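In the current project phase, the collection of sequences with tokenised folds has grown. A sample record is quoted in full directly below:
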Amino acid sequence: MITNFFLTIFYNFLLVLMLPITALSDVTLPANISSSISTASTYLGNINSVFPATTLIIILGIILGIEVFIILYKGINWLIRKIPTIN
């Protein structure tokens, strides 16, 4: 009973937070975008038999992480070089 009470309060709190979004009308994608998504999913389905999607996502995530680290490293070094007393 107490759990139900707290869950109801939490649910109503989420409803109040989502009120600006739920007040808007429903939006649908244009037909061209939905057909493009379905075409891309068939292409990815064909690739999935040769190269599993989970492996592809993991590899892309690792590459993206390394690239973000490189950009952050270069940005921090650029900021350090701009400080006159440290240079």
Helices lie at 2-17, 19-22, 31-48, 53-82. The chain has a mean pLDDT of 86. The radius of gyration is 24 Å. The longest helix spans residues 53-82.
